[in-house]
Design a protein that fits this description.
There is one protein chain. This protein is α/β, with parallel strands linked by helices. It has a domain at about 55-180: Pathogenesis-related Protein p14a, CATH 3.40.33. The chain is built from six helices and seven strands, in the order ααβαβαββαββαβ. A hairpin with a 5-residue loop joins strand 5 and strand 6. Helix 2 packs parallel to helix 4 (about 120-130). This is Pathogenesis-related protein 1A. It comes from Momordica charantia (Bitter gourd). InterPro entries: Allrgn_V5/Tpx1_CS, CAP_dom, CAP_sf, CRISP-related, V5_allergen-like.
Length: about 240
Amino acid sequence: MSPPPLSILPSLLLCISLLLPIASHQQQSQPSNGDAGANATASGNQNHTAPRRGVYAREFLVAHNKVRTKVTHPPFGWDKKLARYARRWGMKRCGDCKMIHSYGPYGENLFWGALDHWTPTEVVESWASEVQFYDAQNNACSEGQMCGHYTQIIWKDSAKIGCARVQCQSGGLLIICEYDPPGNYVNESPFDTFAGGASARASAPTSASAPASAPASPTNPGNTVPPPVPAATTARKLTGTFP
């Protein structure tokens, strides 16, 4: 097979070199330093690589578990399979970085920022800020607001995460986090434990994911989605993914 034309190599290198590498699922819910590769710059120059291996993976995990601690839910563990899945989806999206879901078997949160300086902590805090729009008593988002990113983070049955960060060819940063088992089921609360077990939940009918909105801006660093559709008009699973 002949090598790819030189004209496409810069774009290919950009997609490959800037993804958050994969980290292993550790016994203590912490990725080790050697589990994730370096996060290189667009030029691929190793003299300008991101901090030591595992930093981004650990920061994603710590930021998520800080949110879960506030609702006394068990901490997430980092899972290399989920990280690989997020990484592969990022590979497909780095050319346009549109807020498009993978529609896979996991819960999925997406984030797009116009600049590339967003840290994992800032991204997770942006999702978690939706707590102000979540009405726990009625298990619903405030009218016209989003809260699905937050409820996925605190979903009690979700146990593992894996994330990737991609610097877009057109500029900006795309963040993808996967959650297993997924959350945001109709007629269920983030504080419930599903009695039917994972196999029963997996066989439940699902609805389409909520449509994505316009990309983020400095005043709206995350992405927005409509509030959850009333359960009476949807399938049992509202959505395992929120844009």
